[in-house]
From TrEMBL:
One Pfam family matching this protein: SRPRB
Protein name: Signal recognition particle receptor subunit beta
Taxonomic source organism: Ostreococcus tauri
Protein family per UniProt: Belongs to the SRP receptor beta subunit family.
Domain of life: Eukaryota
Amino acid sequence: MPFDVQAAGTALLEAHSASVALAKAKIRELALPVPLERLDDVALVVVIICTLFSVAIALTLTRALGRTASALRLSTSSRADAIVLMGPKGSGKTCAWQSLAYGEQKFGTCTSVEINELTEDVKGKDARGREVTKRKVRVIDVPGHPKLRREAMLWLKQAKAVVFVVDSVTVANERKEVAQFLFSILSDENFQRRRLPLMLACNKGEKLTAHPPDFIRKRLEREIEAVRRAAEGELPSMAINSKQRRANAAAQKKRDKYRTLGQRPGEAFTFDAFARATACPPTTFDRLSAVKNQVEPLRDFIVRLRH
Ligand SMILES: Nc1nc2c(ncn2[C@@H]2O[C@H](COP(=O)(O)OP(=O)(O)OP(=O)(O)O)[C@@H](O)[C@H]2O)c(=O)[nH]1
Ligand SMILES: [Mg+2]
């Protein structure tokens, strides 16, 4: 049935008049001190305020429903076929995602609270430098805010590769937080068991003060080693009886297996040693400038993935 603009307009006007009449009746019923000549104006203001209030409630509800739906999708989906963009907040994940999705920055970004997801053909160069297209690649941009870290980690389950985006300028100052986040990914059981490929995307590379990828690699290796050593010294959780003590010890042993990052005693962490010990592919380090849509190394990384 075609949309009847005139009928819709009439219905809106009728609804508006009915609302104003209702507001006037309510003002009279409550005996509010409104002069008779101002009754129409006050009723109109009441209707406008109520309408704005309803719109605000509807928007809040829609947002909450969106987040519930995304959490539901996360918990029920068993697909592990996505390129998952992770990393600290403000490092440029959403800009990199837009670059892949649209080849340009379609919208301005602010701190993400929800994921962005798309399935798109990705063009890049294979290991021999030939232009190739990978069909229907699912790419997920995960918010980096520390308060959303627990939920962010759950997206690893859907990953077939992880792209960890860092800000090449601030990474040196924020290395502790960045290393902690990276450690939680590298020591993840699912990540190690499935030998997920990892790319460290050193973004904002066009800036004069950007650190080169090799410098970032060395800085992060040192910092991850510090996190790893601190994790070794962590005390097991309290147990109130022997059964619980045994359960705690078993859980601790399992965690420790992954938290050593495959390094032998006395051996310091490096990305290469991690790859050798866990049989994960070697970590790729490369420079990007998402905001300038210079994300070729990311495209190449995606098209070179085996599956
Ligand atoms: N100079 C420069 N700025 C960038 C680049 N990429 C992103 N930015 C800027 O960095 C800021 C954060 O970018 P986002 O893409 O929103 O960062 P994010 O990683 O998605 O952040 P969260 O959603 O909070 O986790 C924005 O102001 C971007 O314009 C880049 O390559 N160069
Ligand atoms: Mg974002």
